[in-house]
Amino acid sequence: MDQTTYRRIVSGQNQSIAAGLLRILLWLVALFYGCVMRCRNWCYDVGLLGSISVDIPVICIGNITTGGTGKTPLVIWLCRYLQEKGLRCAILTRGYKTEGETLSDEPALLADACNGTPVIINSDRVAGAKKAIETHQPDVLIMDDGFQHRRLRRDMDILAIDATCPFGYGHILPAGLLREPMGSLRRASAMIITRSDQVDDGYIRRIEQTIERIAPEATIAKSIHRQTHAITSGKQTMDMEMLRSKTIYAFCGIGNPQAFFDSLSQSGLKVSGTQVFDDHHVYTEADIRPIIEQAGDRGADTILCTQKDWSKCECLVPEGNEPVFASMAMELDFISGFDTMTQQLETLLQSKGIQD
Q: 215 near 188, Cβ under 8 Å?
């Protein structure tokens, strides 16, 4: 089952009898999974399961739902923020490597965007932290996608909450997209509502009210993903004005594909067609040819994907191809809560004896 079909079922959009029966089955499985997660969290909370500390601050960027919530842009922002303060960072990620030790997906994007910052790949976050400290002597560790990985003790948890699907349709996996019960929001120090420009203000306020009810002490900030330019397969830069003059065919294999497509339209781009692949899809030459053909059929002169997708398919694009392939670059912009959250970061660093 592809992720689009799955989302239509768990969200209730698919009202067929078969989908209804499948939802019942998924709810039963979710009941068991939710019990396991609650028990696991309780064991950590009361000390039956121990967390291991390291000698430097650990800041975790995570989420409470599966799919693309905007963690990677948030990790990049945090890394650059700390670098501007003259601090050395290392990023811990559970990502994997492809053949030939080539970084893929998020690790490749992080390594490219956070120039000079080591990216340590290890599903064992404690081992990864020790390796980072021994090898690179960083001042701060940034743990990517680590909210559920409680074995490594962290000093601050920052959650990315996707405004377009903030709480996973209200159900734990696999009946919804929640990775653990909503009460786990209480563990977070701060929450960033991402893509806050893609829903109306009333909906944003309801998200904030839910967070305030469950985690009243957490800082809440709002951000948007600002698209800045695209880079073609020939390493040429296309600014937004140029992109608006093009006819776009877009594809992606990320957790929330519709948010990407909606953002293109909101930026004023003319999108003639789209194609969705599963999250973390590993592209092959067999995927690229149909994309080119469909783009041509839709009259597109530019084929656009995310930076994550580009890191996995760049080597597969034929040289000098028409329509031209390009990846969309974007940055995280805060629209509220920036000062409060950065003050939390400053307080943490000062408490650990780390000065500017």
A: yes
- List the one residue out of 32, 322, 34 whose CA is nearest residue 168: 34
C-alpha–C-alpha distance, residues 54 and 169, integer Å: 36
Task: State both tokens at 211.
Answer: 């967070």
DSSP-assigned letter for residue 298: T
Tell me the two tokens of residue 230.
């695209």
Note the Cα 47 to chain centre separation in Å. 30
pLDDT in tens, 117-176: 999 999 899 999 999 999 999 999 999 999 999 999 999 999 999 999 999 999 999 999
Confidence band of 103 (pLDDT split at 50, 70, 90): low
| Neighbouring-strand partners of residue 142 | 59, 91
Helix %, strand %, coil % for the chain, to 5? 40, 25, 35
Give 326's strand partners: 232, 304
Residue 184, classed as helix, strand or coil, is helix
Q: Where are the beta strands (DSSP E) in 40-136?
A: 58-62, 89-93, 119-121
* Total residues belonging to the chain: 356
> Which DSSP category does 314 fall into?
G
Rounded distance between C-alpha atoms, residue 256 and residue 225, angstroms: 13
Global pTM exceeds 0.85 = yes
User: What is d(CA 180, CA 173) in angstroms, rounded to the nearest whole number?
Assistant: 8
Place of tokens 């009243």: 216
What is the rounded distance in angstroms from the CA atom of residue 114 to the CA atom of residue 337? 23
Contacts of 128 (CB under 8 A, 6+ apart): 92, 120, 121, 122
58 φ/ψ angles, rounded to the nearest 5 degrees: -120, 120
| Residues contacting residue 315 through CB under 8 Å, at least 6 positions apart | none
Burial class (CB in 10 A: 0-12, 13-18, 19+), 81: middle
Strands (E), the chain: 58-62, 89-93, 119-121, 140-144, 156-162, 190-194, 219-232, 237-239, 247-252, 270-276, 302-306, 324-336
Helices 17-46 & 3-10 angle (0-180, nearest 10): 90
CA distance 63 to 167: 10
